[in-house]
Amino acid sequence: MLSVEPDKVVFTGPVAVGKSTAIACISDIPPISTDVDATDETLLRKNRTTVAMDYGFMMLEDGQYVHLYGTPGQERFNFMWDILVEGGMGLVVLIDATAKNPVQDLDLYLDHFSEFIHKTAAVVGITRSDLVTRDVFLDIHHRLQQRRQKLPLFEIDARDPQDVKVLMHALLAEVAYSH
Amino acid sequence: MIVGARLNLHPVGLNDEGRRILSVAMNVLEVSGCSVCCCDQLSHDTVALIDVDSEEGRDFYERSGNLHIRVVIAGDNCTYRADGLIRKPLRVQALRNLLSDISERIRPQDLHEAKQAASLPAEPGSSDGNVLPNVSLFYALVNAVSTGGLYKILCGDNPDPLMVHGPTRHLYTNQGKQALCNAAQVRSEQLNVIQLDEFEFMRQAQGFTSYRVEKVLWMACESGALGYAPVNFDMQSEFCLNDWPRFDVKHVRPEYLTLTAMATRRSHTFASLAYKTGIPLTTVFDFYHTATVCGVVEHVQPMAVTVSEQAPAIPSLVSRIAKKLGLKFF
Predict the structure, then answer these.
(1) How far apart, in whole angstroms, are the C-alpha atoms of residue A158 and residue A153?
(2) How far is B317 from chain A (nearest CA, A)?
């Protein structure tokens, strides 16, 4: 059986959390999106939404590609989630601090990807935390402790490449020392 | 260990791993107050550190005679005569102990130059008001939280104080984030730290904006963490992290991400963390202080069985991705 080195990083999280934006920060190309006009409750947050995936890549010095995938945010497209993490080296979970229930969002993604996270590595980034007065970091952190998951957790601005790089750095450190 | 002793080393024939171990051992000796340097020139008080399993080392040993202090690093069947012998595999602790012994033998007269580095600021309690040694905002915060005290910190000419409430890990101030960044860069001699009682603290901090100490700590550690060893510093003590600290992405040192990834998995000594990551021991100390303030450090009993000090191999792809992103990966 052919063994292929995992060369894929997957960004996941709810609608409009900043997955496409985060990928754009580190991708060598403008991300290729499968966006369509939103027709459902997504309209409340943005006009267009990803239905299959976002895709970008980084080309390394030796010509190898590292693929960057963003999952569709809506739960009804979750059949794509499992397809996208196949061959992945790690997962970036983004949580929107302004969402109705960020902790519930966290649970949704950590539960769905639990097997993948167990085998690889994951980091959690909280976006838009500057737009809420509540300390969502503490809520998320508390939930991670309840779940007994020691995951790197950061408050980030998905538009800032430096913030996304810190997330990637933590993810790479987790991958490197998880053996 | 003679604090203030000076040791000149001349390593011969050491491979890359040997040099890394030597580098860590030198750091350990440095923070313990011994000045160590590597030199190319040999003099009567130079310690030649010779790996006789290498051709270069054997050649040097045969040529050098008894003119210098010689420490031989060798495998099991060593027949070489020397002032010190270290069996392979080379270990930081073994090297540190032997060099420490030698430093005591050769330069006891240098005691008066003692370097008072290996300690944090002392417990507060002096009566002149300026209760914490002025080391930097970083250490002032570390100490305020670890002692659970209430402090007013004045930075340079800035009349607006930083009010640190140790028990709740909050900092109250009128200053904005930029001013806090500036305060983090104020040097030691311009810091004035005053201990207050609860009533006086509340009176002076009234109306101030509150920040979590961790937030300011990351800014402070950028410029003000000077690599001091912890109080009651013990190279054998092991610690691990029970969680990731609350990092500030704008100020976190990249080394800390690597150290956290390692320390959340199992316990380490300071030296083994430094050796396995190639991160300077002084940075490991800073990391330890910060993690302690964030409340994630757990001390554990050293393991009876010696764990291999082999540095973990970083997957090639991880290193290449880090390079691509311009990350300094350890």
Answers:
(1) 14
(2) 8
Quote the tokens at residue B297.
């450090």
**pLDDT tens-place string over residues A61-94:** 888 999 999 998 777 777 888 888 898 999 999 9
User: In chain B, pLDDT over 70 holds for what percent of residues?
Assistant: 78
Supply the DSSP string of B79-138, one letter for each residue. Answer: ----SEEEESSP-HHHHHHHHHHHHHHH-GGGGGG----S-PPPPS--TTSB-S----HH
Reported ipTM? 0.86
CA quadruple B108, B110, B112, B116: dihedral sign: negative
Please name the residue of chain A whose CA is at the shortest distance from the CA of residue B317. Answer: A7
Which of A7, A145, A167 is nearest residue B317 as measured by Cβ atoms? A7
Q: Using CB atoms, pick whichever of B258, B323, B327 lies closest to residue A165.
A: B327
3-state SS record for A133-155: CCCHHHHHHHHHHHCCCCCCEEE
**Cβ contact, residue pair B249, A173, below 8 Å:** no
Cβ A137–B246 below 8 Å, yes or no?
Answer: yes
CA A16 to chain centre: 12
Rounded to an integer, what distance in angstroms lies between the CA atom of residue A130 and that of residue A125? Answer: 13
HEC assignment per residue over B171-187: EEECCCHHHHHHHHCCC
Average pLDDT over chain A, rounded to an integer:
87
Q: Which of A124, A137, A172, A174 to mutate to test the interface with B (most CBs of B within 10 A)?
A: A172
Q: Could you give the count of Cα atoms lying within 13 Å of B63 in the half-sphere of its Cβ?
A: 10
Cross-chain residue pair A177–B312, CB shorter than 8 Å: yes
* pLDDT 10s digits, B167-201: 888 899 888 877 777 777 776 677 888 889 888 99
Q: Please tell me the least confidently modeled range out of A53-57, A112-116, B90-94, B260-264.
A: B90-94
Residue of A nearest to B296 (CA): A150
Element (DSSP H or E) covering residue B284? helix B281-293
Q: pTM for this structure? A: 0.69
Tell whether B318 lies on the interface with A, counting CB pairs under 8 A.
yes
Cβ within 8 Å, pair A61-B260? no
Q: State the Rg of chain A over Cα.
A: 15
Would you give the DSSP letter of residue A44?
Answer: G
pLDDT in tens, B1-14: 444 566 778 888 88
Q: Cβ separation of A58 and B320 shorter than 8 Å?
A: no
Asked if B243 has any chain A CB less than 8 Å from its own CB, the reply is yes
